């Protein structure tokens, strides 16, 4: 069941753990308690920041409230107390049925594994579902992850339901790039934008979810996560700390690379099952170069992720060579993006080319 990005996808369907988004949770809860709950919410923000976790949490809450409101209110049938939290029991029958796609009033819409977009026929099925009478007497909830994956026809099919919303139907739309959506879709939804999570929040989450990590590893992963808990957790599970150490070692001698080390890294990342590790290295190279270029542009020192690594990148990207390094970054990422592309270039091949371009940029002083 594909939900959001990174390692968080495996727990989003049943997790109440959401770091740094108390304001967003409060907004949802206040809207619910106001009795004027919007029929559609657009939850946006960087990848891995917690959008899917919040969307699933809201969906479980709404369906749990629907169920509880059917039962007697107070001791003498009076009005139930307003809920003061979106938290629900992740092991409840409702949560378990939702996570297994077995709840009759809940639907998850994602692109199929063999497709590049959400197909219009699948969108129409969801829209038809929204107009059906709730089977369990409360709300119907449709979670779309992500609406960015809809093609033009699918987006228009969804828009019709948003323009004429069915009674007691809730649409939760996840978007990584809301600016690319149809303006009419954005205008029919209540916007809920999630910001990047502070480093200390990610460190705390890593301590809870990956307790075997050392303090240094948690700090490094939180920095590499760049405000994204999902990215940090995914990096932890793929051994990103050791990979980043190897990258910094190569960068420290970028003007005269030890190609035997580059080849060794290429051999490791070319193995079957190393696709995620290769993607992580690509992201870390991009992140490091972007950080160095931005720091050089404003004349500020780079904070260390590992002891001394800020100086390594700062000595490479000098203020007077920002333009050349911006070009080099584009070339390097262009090489790395070719791994697994239609040209079927091997990961080792593109990695070697990327590091040769890094060396060329370092030597051009």
From TrEMBL:
Q: Which GO terms describe its biological process?
A: DNA-templated DNA replication
* Annotated spans, Disordered: 72-98
| Cellular component annotations (GO), alphabetically ordered | DNA polymerase III complex
Could you say which enzyme class this protein belongs to? transferase
Q: Does the keyword Transferase apply?
A: yes
Listed Pfam families: DNA_pol3_delta2
Residues making up the signal peptide according to the UniProt record? none
Q: What is the organism of origin for this protein? A: Hwanghaeella grinnelliae
* Name the record gives this protein: DNA polymerase III subunit delta
Among the GO molecular function terms of this UniProt record, one is: DNA-directed DNA polymerase activity
Q: Report the EC number(s), separated by commas if there are several.
A: 2.7.7.7
Keyword tags: Nucleotidyltransferase, Transferase
């Amino acid at each position: 069941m594909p939900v959001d990005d990174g390692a968080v996808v495996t727990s989003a369907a049943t997790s109440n753990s959401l770091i740094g988004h108390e304001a967003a949770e409060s907004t949802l809860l206040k809207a619910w308690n106001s009795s004027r709950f919007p029929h559609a919410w657009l939850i946006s923000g960087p990848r891995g920041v917690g959008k899917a976790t919040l969307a699933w949490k809201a969906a479980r809450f709404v369906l749990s409230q629907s169920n509880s409101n059917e039962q007697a209110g107070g001791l003498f049938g009076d009005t139930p107390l307003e809920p003061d939290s979106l938290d629900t029991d992740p092991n409840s029958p409702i949560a378990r049925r939702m996570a297994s796609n077995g709840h009759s009033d809940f639907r998850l819409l994602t692109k199929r594994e063999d497709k590049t977009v959400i197909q219009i026929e699948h969108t129409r099925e969801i829209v038809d579902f929204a107009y059906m009478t709730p089977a369990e007497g409360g709300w119907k909830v449709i979670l779309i992850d992500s609406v960015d994956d809809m093609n033009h026809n699918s987006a228009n099919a969804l828009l019709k339901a948003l323009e004429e919303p069915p009674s007691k139907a809730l649409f939760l739309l996840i978007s990584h790039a809301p600016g690319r959506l149809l303006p009419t879709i954005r205008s029919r939804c209540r916007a809920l934008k999630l910001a990047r999570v502070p480093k200390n929040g990610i460190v705390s989450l890593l301590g809870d979810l990956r307790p075997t990590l050392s303090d240094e590893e948690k700090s490094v992963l939180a920095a590499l996560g760049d405000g994204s808990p999902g990215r940090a957790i995914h990096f932890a599970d793929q051994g990103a700390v050791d990979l980043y150490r190897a990258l910094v070692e190569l960068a420290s001698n970028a003007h005269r690379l030890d190609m035997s080390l580059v080849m060794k890294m290429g051999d490791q990342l070319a193995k079957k099952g190393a696709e995620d590790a290769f993607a992580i290295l690509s992201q870390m190279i991009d992140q490091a170069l972007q950080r160095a270029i931005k720091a050089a542009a404003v004349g500020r020192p780079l904070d260390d992720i590992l002891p001394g690594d800020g100086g390594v990148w700062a000595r490479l990207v000098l203020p007077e060579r920002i333009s050349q390094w911006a070009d080099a970054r584009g070339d390097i990422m262009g090489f790395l993006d070719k791994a697994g592309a239609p040209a079927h270039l091997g990961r080792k091949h593109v990695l070697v080319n990327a590091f040769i371009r890094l060396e060329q940029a370092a030597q051009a002083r």
